[in-house]
Design brief:
Elements: H1 3-11, E1 16-17, H2 20-25, E2 39-41, H3 46-59, E3 63-66, E4 81-84, E5 92-95, E6 100-103, H4 109-117, E7 121-122, H5 135-140, H6 154-157, E8 158-164, E9 170-172, H7 178-185, H8 187-201, H9 204-213, H10 226-229, H11 233-241, E10 250-257, E11 259-260, E12 264-272, H12 275-280, H13 282-287, E13 292-297, H14 298-304, E14 322-330, H15 333-346, H16 362-373, H17 375-380, E15 388-395, H18 401-414, E16 421-425, E17 430-437, H19 442-462, H20 474-477, H21 481-485, H22 487-500, H23 555-570, H24 574-579, H25 584-590, H26 597-601, H27 608-619, H28 622-633, H29 635-647, E18 672-675, H30 678-683, H31 692-702, E19 707-708, H32 720-724, H33 728-745, E20 753-755, H34 758-765, H35 773-779, E21 784-786, H36 787-795, E22 805-810, H37 814-818, H38 822-830, E23 833-837, H39 851-854, H40 856-873, E24 878-881, H41 884-894, E25 898-900, H42 901-909
Parallel strand pairs: 2-4, 3-4, 18-19, 18-20, 20-21, 22-23, 22-24, 24-25
Antiparallel strand pairs: 1-2, 5-6, 6-10, 7-11, 8-9, 8-10, 12-14, 13-14, 13-16, 15-17, 16-17
Length: 912
């Protein structure tokens, strides 16, 4: 029996992945290590996990857990079997009006906070990757972040855990009988933990060493402070699991105490001549009550120059300079005013380059924090081609912060890292640094080895700091745990591992490793592939926005596979590269929605969908390109034939009704041009609803707005159907024709142009690159508006809403989100309803033009979470959106009839 057979007996055939491309997709996390697993398994419940533990002991093949895969230190890669938690384990229950929250390891931290925001609370841990990392990793790495320090990290804010030990024993610490159950079922572990506790308490020097190490941010090794903070075996054990990086048990569920999400915030970016001058300001700003103090050196600031809200000074600041992103928080305006007064009192003593006023503007604050949180990707995107990113974090005692940073910058110079940068949570003495490093030859690896040796000596020997502050120990620092903690406490850590995981089946070598060179093994190179994706550092921020993430691959995995193909071909392994291709076309290309939502989460705006379109383009032959060109040039014929086929009952059942003609609305006194998209002209409206074009003209007239639909609109298309399939020339033909016609219709841009389908509006908003130079000049004079923008800004202010519904659900299509109109869409719906439901799980529906017809499984996977959330929310009176195809997808997913926002307007403003 093969390994696969045994695994399938436990979890089922579809939950075991062994095809070469599937294994390669999981060979990387956000670190600079790569290991290919023997299999990827997706357990459904704790019974599966316990059975997998038994299988692992029997087969002597280790297991590694992976949740979000955002680990920066190689914790989520393995040559054993990888247990993927990202598609299941998403239970989430808000308790006591947000005072607590129960959550599974597969839930993204930012999604938890979105639910808690309704109650004015949030999680204590606030890592920069909060919108990508998952609860499993937050607990397993004892995450902290920008504001939480050590007081509000995972260790301090957890109330209980449910976990499975390597023996298969499952314990829920929240249950009253948990301690007795643990003592009975795992008596050897219980006795062993108490023995270790006694040993530590009997040696005051060891106890004080542990206390000293945990007064600062420190995730190096196991959380030995559990032996000092708790008295009972179970309490000690489950706190040891926090920060254990999946080496001791499987964490199936966590209950957190939340913290207040203070509504009042005032923020500023303070510039200093040097890093030491910035460090001098830390203590005065801490004393003034700052909640966050984020240090950024000169090169860091240069990397975010030009981003929204970042002051222009960042672009010209000298390399030696630095800045601190400071934020004060309060529960109300009175408290916030007091914070600002405390800041102003401290300001005269701060060595600022120029005076800086704090701002309460939410948009500016969001821009500053987005720039800071995306710093690793922003800097990584500018790295030398062919290099990987090393991203590490250390802690210096606060009194040594300035000296430590200066020494760190000296190491960059000594070891020839001219692009090294320093930034981090200065309030806690926690400094991150980033280097571009080639691992393509032995000389480069030796360079990194020498740097690491000097770093360890500097942090540990000179300053008695921590080699890891919040990213977990990982493969890169596992060889140095003993160096930092000393042989006696390292021996205790070894004893903990042997006691709880005697067979060593869980993530071996990741947190403790006696191989002094393990940090130099299995290093990841990032070869040059395509311009669209070469900037990617594989951080995984994009994954939570991807509609295919629960079906096939994520954007990061598509990039990982493209690079793996390049590595194999560069090494002359053409056969090995071909092995990856079994099933790859479907997973990588066919099921990518190419919706661009990944770019909205990527700190440097990488649109993997654009890359996939180029792949599709490269696969088209001359004949298919010629057919597409003819179709784009003669789109009126395509439109007529499609309408005829649908009227004859040929096609999906949602589209078989007769299609009415467009209304006549050629007013000479038009206030705007109305462009009914080809989707509207061909697919029509759902059964039982009036035609969309007729509805929009009627609603606009109620606001005293006159719309003109051009007589010659037939056959004009924005070009999106061709762009999404990779027919770039055909897209250009259609887009150029559309812009030329729109210029004529709008009197050279004098009249705005209303687009009734949001994906078409987005396509037109981003088509400039496909236009001829002449049409680019024409395009720049046009005002092209999505229907949401037109409705919110021009229709709604005058629309006579005569009644409101109790409850309306809204699906913001991905184009609305990318256009920045989601808030306006919600406001439009709110004008017609007492309550509006916008699912927190809302995302791209995966319909992707016509892909919902050809690959309905993509839409089903993309909408599952949103549909489930709508079902839990209860029945709404209406369900609305702004794209006919997306409405079809959501109707399929929910069983509720989704219609256009304009149909809601029509109904709520009708007087008869």
């Amino acid at each position: 029996m093969t390994h696969r057979d045994g695994l399938e007996r436990i979890v089922g055939r579809t939950r075991v992945l062994t095809r070469p491309f599937e294994l390669a997709a999981f060979s990387c996390d956000a670190s600079f290590y790569t290991l290919t697993p023997k299999a990827v398994v997706r357990p459904q419940d704790t019974k599966d996990v316990a059975a997998l533990f038994a299988w692992s002991r029997r087969e002597r093949i280790p297991l590694t857990f992976r949740a979000g895969g955002t680990s920066l230190s190689g914790q989520a890669v393995t040559e054993g079997v990888l247990l993927d938690l990202s598609r299941d384990w998403r239970a989430l229950e808000v308790l006591e009006d947000g005072a607590r929250v129960r959550v599974g390891p597969g839930v993204v931290g930012g999604f938890v906070n979105a639910h808690l925001a309704r109650h004015g609370t949030k999680l204590g841990p606030d890592p920069a990757s909060i919108n990508a990392c998952m609860i499993g990793g937050i607990v397993a790495n004892n995450s902290s972040g920008m504001c939480c320090g050590i007081e509000k990290n995972a260790y301090r804010t957890l109330e209980s855990l449910r976990f499975v030990l390597p023996s298969g024993t499952e314990i829920d610490t929240a249950r009253p009988e948990a301690a007795a159950r643990f003592a009975h079922l795992e008596s050897e572990i219980a006795r062993g933990l108490m023995h270790i506790r006694s040993k530590i308490h009997e040696m005051p020097m060891l106890a004080e060493r542990i206390r000293a190490k945990h007064r600062m941010k420190n995730t190096m090794g196991y959380s030995l402070n559990a032996f000092l903070d708790f008295d009972t075996p179970l309490d000690i054990l489950w706190h040891l699991l926090v920060g254990s990086e999946g080496t001791l048990a499987f964490i199936a569920e966590a209950v957190f105490h939340t913290i207040p999400d203070l509504p009042g915030k005032t923020t500023g970016l303070l510039f200093f001549e040097t890093v030491p001058r910035a460090c001098e300001a830390i203590e005065p700003l801490r004393a003034a009550g700052a909640a966050a103090l984020e240090l950024m050196d000169g090169p860091s600031l240069r990397s975010i120059a030009g981003k929204p809200a970042v002051p222009a000074l960042a672009a010209t600041i000298p390399r030696a300079a630095a800045a601190i992103l400071a934020e004060f928080q309060a529960g109300d305006d009175t408290g916030l005013t007091a914070c600002e007064e405390a800041y102003r009192a401290a300001t005269p003593d701060l060595p600022l380059i120029e005076p800086t006023q704090l701002t309460r503007d939410a948009t500016t604050q969001a821009g500053l924090w987005a720039a800071r949180k995306g710093l690793i990707a922003s800097v990584g995107a500018t790295r030398r081609s062919g290099t990987s990113v090393i991203f590490e974090d250390v802690t210096f005692p606060l009194e040594h912060l300035a000296a430590g940073v200066a020494d760190l910058q000296h190491l960059f110079e000594k070891h020839d890292y001219p692009d090294g940068i320093v930034f981090g949570h200065a309030k806690d003495g926690n400094v991150h640094f980033l280097l571009s490093q080639s691992f393509n030859d032995q000389a480069s690896i030796d360079q990194y080895a020498r740097f690491t040796d000097d770093l360890v000596a500097m942090v540990v020997d000179r300053y008695d700091g921590a080699l890891k502050a919040e990213h977990g120990t990982g493969r890169n620092m596992a060889p140095f745990v003993e160096r930092e903690w000393g042989s006696e406490l390292y021996g205790i850590m070894r004893e903990v591992k042997r006691l709880i995981d005697p067979d060593g089946i869980l993530n071996p070598g990741v947190l403790l490793n006696d191989d002094p060179k393990v940090h130099l093994a299995n290093l990841k190179s990032l070869p040059t592939v395509e311009d669209e994706i070469d900037r990617c550092i594989e951080c995984g921020f994009c994954e939570s926005r991807c509609p295919s993430r629960d079906l096939t691959l994520t954007p990061r995995q598509r990039i990982v596979l493209r690079r793996e193909q390049a590595r194999r071909r560069a090494a002359g392994h053409s056969l090995a590269a071909a092995v990856l291709e079994e099933g790859l076309e479907y997973a990588m290309v066919d099921t990518c929605a190419a919706d661009g939502m990944c770019a909205t989460a990527c700190p440097v705006g990488i649109d993997t969908g654009s890359f996939i379109k180029h792949l599709r383009a490269s696969e088209h032959g001359a004949a298919s390109r010629a057919i597409a060109h003819v179709a784009a040039s003669s789109f009126g014929i395509v439109e007529a034939l499609t309408r005829a086929a649908l009227s004859a009952g040929i096609g999906p059942e949602e589209l078989t009704a007769d299609k009415p003609k467009l209304p006549r609305s050629n007013s000479t006194a038009a206030d705007a041009i109305y462009f009914p998209s080809c989707v509207t002209r061909v697919l029509g409206s759902p059964a039982g609803t009036p035609p969309l074009a007729e509805t929009i003209v009627r609603v606009a007239s109620r606001s005293d707005l006159h719309l003109r639909i051009p007589d010659d609109i037939a056959g004009v298309c924005c070009g999106m159907p061709f762009s999404s399939k990779g027919f770039e020339t055909a897209h250009a033909v259609a887009a150029n024709r559309a812009i030329e016609r729109m210029a004529e219709w709008s009197d050279g841009g004098r009249l705005p142009i209303l687009i009734d389908t949001s994906p078409c509006a987005w396509s037109l908003a981003t088509c400039r690159h496909a236009l001829s130079p002449k049409n680019q000049r024409v395009y720049d004079r046009l005002t092209i508006l999505d229907s949401v923008a037109f409705a919110h800004g021009r229709v709604l202010p005058k629309l006579p809403i005569v009644r409101r519904l109790p409850r309306v659900a809204v699906h913001p299509v991905c184009s609305v989100v990318k256009l920045g109109l989601a808030g306006k869409l919600e406001a439009c719906a709110r004008s017609c309803a007492e309550s509006v439901v916008v699912p927190l799980a809302a995302g791209c529906c995966g319909f992707a033009g016509d892909r919902g017809f050809t690959h309905p499984e993509l839409t089903a996977a993309a909408t599952a979470s949103e549909a489930a959330e709508l079902a839990r929310a209860g029945v709404c009176d209406r369900y609305v959106s702004t794209s006919r195809t997306c409405e079809i997808g959501m109707t399929r997913a929910t069983g509720k009839a989704f219609v256009s926002l304009w149909h809601l307007f029509d109904e709520m403003s009708r007087t008869a």
